Amino acid sequence: MSLINQMIIIGNLGGDAEVKDTKNGNLLAKFSVAVNKKGKDGQESTTWVNVQAWRNLAEACCNLKKGDRVVVIGEYISNAYMSTAGEKKYFNSLNAVFVAKPILSSEKNNQNNGQSSFNEFGTSVSEEEYNAQHSNEEIPF
């Protein structure tokens, strides 16, 4: 039986995404996401999730800025390394396979009459832009 390791988070970026080339020539984006929830007592708690995205997805993440709300889907991984003191340390992160900005915030929705949808890169577009990109005139039947 095959097991599944998939994690889905929705939260806000704690800082701008850092994008760099690795020694192997692969593009890597790293950022942290704050996921907030309210407990039964009404107190809000925050869980910080470190995220890494590779290659084309890393390139798409280069415009992510501190405070942006994102949806991230990926595999939860744990990496081990040796500290300078010779101790074995662990670093947990989410290896992203999908990153998107959800529909516009309510303030921006008011400017667009609440009409928006996702484009193929996960950012939202107005209804007019969507209809212009997906015209029925191009369908050959």
Automatic annotation (TrEMBL):
<dbReference type="InterPro" id="IPR011344">
    <property type="entry name" value="ssDNA-bd"/>
</dbReference>
<dbReference type="GO" id="GO:0003697">
    <property type="term" value="F:single-stranded DNA binding"/>
</dbReference>
<dbReference type="InterPro" id="IPR012340">
    <property type="entry name" value="NA-bd_OB-fold"/>
</dbReference>
<protein>
    <recommendedName>
        <fullName>Single-stranded DNA-binding protein</fullName>
    </recommendedName>
</protein>
<dbReference type="GO" id="GO:0006260">
    <property type="term" value="P:DNA replication"/>
</dbReference>
<dbReference type="GO" id="GO:0009295">
    <property type="term" value="C:nucleoid"/>
</dbReference>
<keyword id="KW-0238">DNA-binding</keyword>
<dbReference type="InterPro" id="IPR000424">
    <property type="entry name" value="Primosome_PriB/ssb"/>
</dbReference>
<feature type="compositionally biased region" description="Polar residues">
    <location>
        <begin position="107"/>
        <end position="125"/>
    </location>
</feature>
<dbReference type="Pfam" id="PF00436">
    <property type="entry name" value="SSB"/>
</dbReference>
<feature type="region of interest" description="Disordered">
    <location>
        <begin position="107"/>
        <end position="141"/>
    </location>
</feature>
